[in-house]
Amino acid sequence: MPKFQARVLISLRSSVLDPAGEAARAAANRLGVKGIEKLRIGKSVDLSIEAPTESEARSRLELLSDRLLANPVIENWSLDIQPSNTSKEG
Amino acid sequence: MAIGVVVFPGSNCDRDVRWASEGCLGIPTRFLWHETRDLSGLDAIVLPGGFSYGDYLRCGAIARFAPVLESLIEFIDQGRKVLGICNGFQVLTELGILPGALTRNQDLNFICKSVQLNVVSGRTSWIKGHQSGDLISLPIAHGEGRYQCSNETLQMLQDEDSIVLRYKNNPNGSVGDIAGITNTAGNVLGLMPHPERACDPIIGGIDGRGILQALLD
Q1: How far apart are the C-alpha atoms of A17 and B146, rounded to whole Å?
Q2: Model ipTM value
């Protein structure tokens, strides 16, 4: 069965205040890093999945992202998926 | 007449609810382990506060898949009463039974204090003994209690008179000062304040009694 590597990136919708991001932005300023205009914190989820085809893997991970990993009321998500090449390296 | 209190791994207000419902108000109360599906003999159910499943991923996100909640959805569809307090409110929004979501407090603090609340809706009988316009005082204790929803959802909540409690002085940045809402049918209430911690005068007030008593109305 083919294997795929995937990464789901989850970010707060732009209309939702991100106080943790704002706190980190203030800290960036105190560190002396100037010019940071926007800093928003999200989540990254790495997955590996076995599925007969890439499109089947994608459709399973889309369901997972939409129903569990992200809450679409407040968050957006994006999915990156590629065939796994671990076999070459053993 | 009896109520059930769901116990998730990580719930920490389950016994507080039972202490208030049974000890202060004389309501027979049974604990419901999260793996049960048996809700027989119960007239109402409370989802208590705490940190269900460690609040991993998002508050309430994993609790949403507990077996007991499959039975809870049928229970709600039958028009029976469900009260979600704090983490229980978060679970109800994750389930989609109540609209919106609860996110990190605006100032990032975990806030633990008594707050004043305006009773907004008189449409349902959830705040027994109080009418729209009354001011009550209840404790809050949360880090992620900022109610968030779209403008359309806020409008819907207002139009159908589903906002039950608003903060007098918004402590966490909630949209519309919202502290508690019901579903459209009115049989499900979710709120961030803890009524079970305000049922005995010796610990500071009894404004929470009416909400627990309303479970059996």
Answers
A1: 10
A2: 0.83
